[in-house]
From TrEMBL:
Residues 65-106 form the Alkylated DNA repair protein AlkB homologue 8 N-terminal domain. InterPro entries: AlkB_hom8_N. It comes from Cirrhinus mrigala. This is Alkylated DNA repair protein AlkB homologue 8 N-terminal domain-containing protein. It comes from the Eukaryota.
Length: 130
Protein backbone atom coordinates (compact mmCIF):
# COMPACT_ATOMS: atom_id res chain seq x y z
CA UNK A 1 0.00 0.00 0.00
CA UNK A 2 2.92 2.37 0.72
CA UNK A 3 4.40 1.81 -2.73
CA UNK A 4 1.00 2.47 -4.31
CA UNK A 5 0.71 5.70 -2.35
CA UNK A 6 4.21 6.68 -3.48
CA UNK A 7 3.33 5.97 -7.12
CA UNK A 8 0.18 8.12 -6.83
CA UNK A 9 2.13 10.93 -5.16
CA UNK A 10 4.76 10.83 -7.91
CA UNK A 11 2.10 10.91 -10.61
CA UNK A 12 0.31 13.83 -8.90
CA UNK A 13 3.59 15.75 -8.66
CA UNK A 14 4.67 15.06 -12.26
CA UNK A 15 7.44 12.66 -11.26
CA UNK A 16 8.04 9.32 -12.91
CA UNK A 17 9.24 6.13 -11.26
CA UNK A 18 11.62 4.15 -13.44
CA UNK A 19 10.82 0.52 -12.62
CA UNK A 20 13.85 -0.72 -14.60
CA UNK A 21 16.17 1.15 -12.23
CA UNK A 22 14.25 0.23 -9.10
CA UNK A 23 15.47 -2.70 -7.00
CA UNK A 24 13.90 -4.47 -4.05
CA UNK A 25 15.88 -5.91 -1.15
CA UNK A 26 14.09 -7.90 1.52
CA UNK A 27 15.76 -7.58 4.92
CA UNK A 28 14.20 -10.24 7.12
CA UNK A 29 15.97 -11.79 10.11
CA UNK A 30 13.16 -14.13 11.18
CA UNK A 31 14.16 -17.75 11.60
CA UNK A 32 11.27 -19.03 9.51
CA UNK A 33 11.77 -17.94 5.92
CA UNK A 34 8.57 -16.48 4.56
CA UNK A 35 7.68 -15.80 0.97
CA UNK A 36 7.15 -12.13 0.29
CA UNK A 37 4.77 -11.04 -2.43
CA UNK A 38 6.51 -9.51 -5.44
CA UNK A 39 6.53 -5.74 -5.50
CA UNK A 40 4.79 -4.04 -8.42
CA UNK A 41 4.72 -0.40 -9.42
CA UNK A 42 2.05 0.67 -11.90
CA UNK A 43 1.59 -2.96 -12.94
CA UNK A 44 5.31 -3.56 -13.59
CA UNK A 45 7.24 -6.01 -11.43
CA UNK A 46 10.27 -4.73 -9.50
CA UNK A 47 13.44 -6.81 -9.60
CA UNK A 48 14.34 -8.43 -6.27
CA UNK A 49 18.09 -8.52 -5.59
CA UNK A 50 20.25 -9.77 -2.73
CA UNK A 51 22.60 -6.76 -2.91
CA UNK A 52 22.79 -3.40 -4.62
CA UNK A 53 24.84 -0.24 -4.67
CA UNK A 54 23.10 2.90 -3.41
CA UNK A 55 24.92 6.24 -3.32
CA UNK A 56 28.26 4.44 -3.43
CA UNK A 57 27.45 2.05 -0.56
CA UNK A 58 27.00 -1.68 -1.21
CA UNK A 59 23.97 -2.90 0.73
CA UNK A 60 23.15 -6.60 1.14
CA UNK A 61 19.99 -8.28 2.37
CA UNK A 62 21.77 -9.63 5.47
CA UNK A 63 23.19 -6.15 6.18
CA UNK A 64 26.75 -7.44 6.28
CA UNK A 65 29.31 -4.93 5.07
CA UNK A 66 31.83 -7.35 3.58
CA UNK A 67 30.91 -6.45 -0.03
CA UNK A 68 31.17 -2.75 0.78
CA UNK A 69 34.53 -3.17 2.51
CA UNK A 70 35.89 -5.26 -0.36
CA UNK A 71 34.85 -2.63 -2.90
CA UNK A 72 36.37 0.20 -0.82
CA UNK A 73 39.61 -1.73 -0.35
CA UNK A 74 39.89 -2.46 -4.07
CA UNK A 75 39.25 1.15 -5.02
CA UNK A 76 41.73 2.39 -2.43
CA UNK A 77 44.41 -0.08 -3.54
CA UNK A 78 44.09 1.26 -7.09
CA UNK A 79 44.69 4.80 -5.81
CA UNK A 80 47.65 3.68 -3.68
CA UNK A 81 49.42 2.76 -6.90
CA UNK A 82 49.54 6.44 -7.83
CA UNK A 83 50.77 7.37 -4.36
CA UNK A 84 53.66 4.94 -4.84
CA UNK A 85 54.39 6.56 -8.20
CA UNK A 86 54.56 9.95 -6.48
CA UNK A 87 56.97 8.56 -3.88
CA UNK A 88 59.23 7.12 -6.60
CA UNK A 89 59.20 10.51 -8.30
CA UNK A 90 60.36 12.00 -4.98
CA UNK A 91 57.31 14.21 -4.57
CA UNK A 92 57.42 16.38 -1.43
CA UNK A 93 55.65 14.99 1.64
CA UNK A 94 52.94 17.72 1.72
CA UNK A 95 51.92 16.87 -1.84
CA UNK A 96 51.79 13.16 -1.04
CA UNK A 97 49.76 13.88 2.10
CA UNK A 98 47.30 16.02 0.16
CA UNK A 99 47.00 13.35 -2.53
CA UNK A 100 46.35 10.68 0.12
CA UNK A 101 43.70 12.76 1.90
CA UNK A 102 41.94 13.70 -1.31
CA UNK A 103 41.95 10.40 -3.15
CA UNK A 104 42.33 7.54 -0.66
CA UNK A 105 41.11 8.75 2.71
CA UNK A 106 38.02 10.26 1.11
CA UNK A 107 37.13 6.82 -0.32
CA UNK A 108 37.69 5.04 2.98
CA UNK A 109 35.59 7.50 4.97
CA UNK A 110 32.69 8.02 2.55
CA UNK A 111 29.43 7.17 4.36
CA UNK A 112 31.48 5.72 7.22
CA UNK A 113 28.83 6.66 9.77
CA UNK A 114 26.42 4.29 8.00
CA UNK A 115 28.49 1.13 7.74
CA UNK A 116 31.52 1.22 10.05
CA UNK A 117 29.65 0.56 13.30
CA UNK A 118 28.32 -2.74 11.92
CA UNK A 119 31.61 -3.89 10.36
CA UNK A 120 33.12 -7.09 11.67
CA UNK A 121 36.73 -7.29 12.86
CA UNK A 122 37.93 -8.74 9.55
CA UNK A 123 36.51 -5.80 7.56
CA UNK A 124 37.98 -3.29 9.99
CA UNK A 125 41.38 -4.96 9.75
CA UNK A 126 41.25 -4.84 5.94
CA UNK A 127 40.56 -1.11 5.98
CA UNK A 128 43.13 -0.49 8.71
CA UNK A 129 45.84 -2.14 6.58
CA UNK A 130 45.25 0.39 3.81
Amino acid sequence: SEVSRLAVWCRDNNLSLNVEKTKEIVVDFRRAHTQHAPLTINGASVERVSSTKFLGVHITEDLSWTNNTTALAKKSQQRLYFLRKLRRARAPAPIMYTFYRGTIESILTSCISVWFGACNASCQKTLQRI
